[in-house]
Amino acid sequence: MLRQTAYSSLLAIGCLIAVYVPTFTLVSILIVSGMLGHLNKSEAQLVSIPLVIIISTAIASAIMALLARRRALTLAAYGFKTTSSRQLAVAVGLGLLFAFGLRVLSWLLPIHESLDMGNLQKWQAILFFWIAAPIQEEIIFRGFLQSVVEMHRPVVMRLGKLTLPFSVLVSALLFAAVHIATSRLGASLGQVMFIVFGAFVLGVLASWLRWKSSSLMPAILVHALFNIFAG
Predict the structure, then answer these.
(1) 10-44: per-residue pLDDT in tens?
(2) What pTM value is reported for the model?
(3) Which residues pair with 231 in a beta bridge?
(4) Burial zone of 181 (CB within 10 Å; 0-12 exposed, 13-18 middle, 19+ buried)
(5) Number of domains within the chain
(6) Number of H helices, E strands in the chain
């Protein structure tokens, strides 16, 4: 069991490296080389957001397409499929419940400082974080990472009467871990800890929904609701 979970963890980390290392390398080259013009720090930060979203999604999708072809599967095996209205309703209910719960908790804690998002306009925030980011991150974490771990090392964890694949937990943990990077946006230690906690809660919900429905749609929906109401 320990060996299997360790292997699954390394496999999941490898998935993230395969997506994000080339993504940030390409984005850095585009910005530093001047191919996008001479950008100041604020402009570079603003330009990097859509670039990271587009490039990372393209890389993850390309890898999944190659893996699916190699295993004689379709992208439906990675969550690219429709689901029932009941699963979508569950996603909406859970998303709103936990999003508002986190919002109330944030009001009770001394963490009200805003993050430094540069010259990001309201419409850009809506496009990037309410629409694009939920799709991008769910494709990477629940479509690519979680599916690969489930296919290669389907470890099942039992917590009392609760049965949960290890892929759900490792996907949520790594999703939370990458949000430590919010410290680069001027977040205080308390803010970072709260953001990471919220990301873990969201990660567990999205991963569980992906597992139960076999579709990315509920995960994307609950993610969008989190970003809209708890972000």
Answers:
(1) 999 999 999 999 999 999 999 988 888 888 877 88
(2) 0.92
(3) none
(4) exposed
(5) 1
(6) 9, 2
